[in-house]
Design a protein that fits this description.
- The protein has helices at residues 2-12, 15-18, 122-126; strands at residues 27-43, 58-60, 63-74, 78-86, 95-104, 107-121, 131-134, 142-160, 163-176, 179-187, 193-200, 203-208, 211-219, 226-240, 244-250, 256-261, 266-280.
- The protein is mainly β and 281 residues long.
- Strands 1, 2, 3, 4, 5, 6, 8, 9, 12, 13, 14 and 17 form a twelve-stranded antiparallel sheet that branches. It has a five-stranded antiparallel sheet with strand order 7-10-11-15-16.
- β3 (63-74) and β4 form a beta hairpin.
- The protein is elongated.
- It starts with a helix and ends with a strand.
- Mean pLDDT is 87; it is low at 4-24.
């Protein structure tokens, strides 16, 4: 909560007033918005063979969130946007940033970055029907990671009467970092003990992400400011798999069995939309 409040305070400060003495002419206009929305992700599930399919245990947070967004219109057709979400755990783990260059009033070029939390179900991955499983130093049933997106695309602004907005057509690369997890296992009704390791290398997948922002101006307190309602929505699609190496040590480190596991790609589809208020100054 404290991080969101700090972000709200910082983004609500009129930057072009604060820096007007040293950066006159650089900040043409700024917009801040606060909103509430819902983000959902659907990951295609497939029947797994005897080898664990990590895609079946990968998940995103599907939940309601509160958010804050800051958009700055810079000198020479440049724009910059950054936003973050406050999720149900009162954490601001989601971060989105976008740099926009507008060589023409009707079309622009974008570069974007996003960091989104994901999680693996640890006990579901390690659990075996014939073994009692213990995961050392684990205070949670999930292993958390960051799904990073590196995007590029086109921006198409539009305006008509009190309505305005932008359509973004974006694509790029989705990145998952390397990960490592292990568990101790003891066979039921037996003294057999073993150590099981999952070594997950970093992975990449192509992604598409069209996005739209629509604003409806309600009032103009002054000639240079406006207040209104805002809608933002985006759809995300990619196909990926998560390969890994599994090491099983039975009784001793010397008795090692290594397997390199790969599964076909599975689809990931996400929908994210929110509604809120904006203030342009």
């Amino acid at each position: 909560m404290k991080r969101l409040l700090i972000a709200l305070i910082l983004t609500c400060i009129p930057a072009h007033y604060v820096f007007s003495y040293t950066l006159t002419g650089w900040f043409e206009e700024s917009k801040i918005s606060v909103f509430g929305g819902v983000a959902t992700h659907h990951i295609e599930k497939r029947n797994s063979s005897e080898d664990v399919n990590l895609m079946n245990y990968l998940s995103y947070r599907n939940e309601f969130y509160l958010g804050v967004d800051a958009h700055v219109y810079l000198h020479e057709q440049w724009q910059f946007n950054i936003k973050t979400y406050l999720n149900s755990s009162l954490r601001t783990d989601d971060v989105f940033a976008k740099l926009i260059y507008m060589p023409h009033e009707k079309i622009g070029v974008t570069l974007g970055y996003a960091s989104i939390p994901v999680q693996y179900g640890l006990y579901e991955i390690h659990e075996q029907p014939q073994y009692y499983t213990t995961i050392p130093n684990s205070d949670d049933i999930y292993d958390f990671a960051k799904n990073e997106l590196f995007l590029a695309g086109l921006a198409f602004p539009f305006e008509g009467g009190k309505f305005s907005g932008t359509i973004y057509l974006q694509g790029g690369v989705s990145y998952l970092p390397n990960d490592f997890s292990f568990s101790w296992q003891k066979k039921y009704d037996s003294n057999e003990r073993r150590l099981v390791e999952y070594d997950i290398p970093e992975s990449y997948a192509f992604i598409i992400q069209p996005e739209v922002e629509i604003r409806w101006e309600i009032a103009k307190p002054t000639t240079d400011t406006s207040i209104g309602l805002q809608f933002q929505g985006k759809w995300t699609y990619s196909k990926r798999n998560i390969d890994y190496t599994r090491n099983i040590y039975t009784w001793t480190i010397d008795n090692k069995q290594t397997e390199i596991i790969s599964h076909p790609k599975q689809s990931i589809e996400g929908v994210d939309w929110n509604v809120g208020l904006f203030y342009i100054f």
